[in-house]
Amino acid sequence: MRTVVFVCTGNICRSPMAEAFLNRILAREGLAADCAVRSAGVWAANGRPASPFAIQVMARRGIDISGHRAHSLTQADVEEADLILVMASEHAEVIETLLPQYKPKIHLLSEMVGRHHDIPDPGGGPLYEYLQCADELEDLIEGSYLRILELAKGTYT
């Protein structure tokens, strides 16, 4: 089984939503046994619940993330991951500065669909920013889940 880790800043908005979207897609496609999906934050406060707005926008999509608790990214997480998908370039920079040997497995999520841009952090913003973020994450992950699996398995060409 391969491991994919989504990374954002606090692990209470973007990365738990991304984790939930990929898990839903993998379950729908019968691929859940192929991949463990996790999330973490580069500056997360361990144990903090997901943002209330993140919980709300995911509930609108039939996904419950109310049980999510923030997890601060550790060296072990990076070592054990087959693929690390970051929400913003700054997250990659933090990881690559501390653990440069793992740079090949770190990618910006938007790169999975041939783009190169950060996913804006809705944290502290109004509900519509969370809705926009969730829409973008869902579109990106829906459009790239096969590539994500291939990269995690090391088979993407």
Strand order of the largest sheet: 2-1-3-4
Helicity range: 40-55%
Mind telling me which CATH architecture this is?
3-Layer(aba) Sandwich
Assess the beta-strand content as a share of residues: 5-15%
Number of domains: 1
Q: What does the radius of gyration come to?
A: 14 Å
**Largest sheet, described in full?**
4 strands, parallel
CATH class: Alpha Beta
Mean pLDDT: 97
| CATH-derived topology | Rossmann fold
Termini gap: 20 Å
Number of helical segments with 4 or more residues:
6
What are the low-pLDDT stretches, counting only 5+ consecutive residues below 50? none
CATH superfamily: Response regulator
- Which structural category fits the helices and strands? alpha/beta
> Based on DSSP secondary structure assignment, what is the total number of beta strands?
4
